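step 3/5: co-fold with magnesium ion
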Amino acid sequence: MTAQEQADLAVAELRSTWAGEPDGVWTAPGRVNLIGEHVDYNGGRCLPMALTRVTAAAVRRRDDDRVRISSSDPDAEPFEGTLADLGPGEVSGWAGYAAGTLWALQQAGVDVPGLDVSVSSDVPLGAGLSSSASLEAAVALSAAELAGRNDAAELRHLLIQAAIRAENEVVGAGTGGMDQTVALLAEEGSALLIHTRDFRTEPVQLGLAEAGLELMVIDTRVKHTLADGQYAKRRADCDEAARQLGLEWLSDATPADVDRLSDPRLQARTRHVVTENQRVDEVVELVRAGRVAEIGPLLDGSHTSLRDDYEVSAVELDVVVEAARAAGALGARMTGGGFGGSAIALIRAADAEAVGAAVVAACRERELTLPGILTVTSGPAARRLS
Ligand code: ADP
Ligand code: MG
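step 4/5: write tokens
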């Protein structure tokens, strides 16, 4: 589906639920993380890419202080409230991502008006492709523009921070900022190297098509939300390891620091963070040297580290990663937070069908839910469509 088609669905949702025409339609992309997993909240580096799949938000300014939000997702109940009650403890469920973003924008001094908002998305929800940040980013940009703010780099950084606050403080999910940053700052045709300590970004052209390669996303259809508590536990492990090492950011740990920790679990968590940042740097170096076809082993190494040291994989992820490699993928790894969600495989374009078939067959043989297969290209950041 194109972004415009998604926008049309959001407009139809606004018409049917809130009866009216939008002042504008904004879209924001989902993302897939090439490498650099579970490092964003540790001040590390990651290399995600925006997808062409987007959340569209059709938005209309109101004359009063009411806020109404709906989604074309059948499980999402419409939300109605006022500008004064969108904060922590006041909104629950899916609407927290959107309403919470409006709350955080107000906290940051944006004069958010009353709004009718309707969203529609083809980013699969809870699949590790960041439907949540795409929702936040589309809503954030729409509200800021309808509040009279000019779209500029400075505004986008403010929106990133508002979206992170919404997810951390209103939804209560421990996101580290990678997803919001790529949704708002991605450049079409490139991946985005993010230095999560200061949210500095650099576009990195992957050159996949030129090398005859494709990035395949394998959605295990196992919802990662089931393991929410695990995410918080990993963050707590990292905070504790950093404290014991006397570091502000665990990404500043060295390989020697790993041995200084006495708890084997904290050692393993730290080893993941240290080696994952190294792998990101090596991938960026290879890609910039025109050697993207050689990053496969680094993707494989990331998966092993996430599975064994960070313990955030799942049997479904391990099975599809193994099957993809056996069918000729140059490298494969889980992507996103883990415990389900999606894996990626770097493949030769000519192998796409064979790898897809092998992955599905492996899941069938193991009696696992059959996965969804997507070939992805890099899309643009959040933007106004009309
Ligand atoms: P991911 O971001 O990887 O898709 P999350 O668990 O972070 O997974 O976010 C998924 C949640 O975001 C959904 O369960 C839902 O509450 C909310 N969400 C995202 N997009 C939409 C949408 N278009 N409509 C309703 N809810 C949405
Ligand atoms: Mg998310």
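step 5/5: annotate
The chain has eleven helices and 13 strands.
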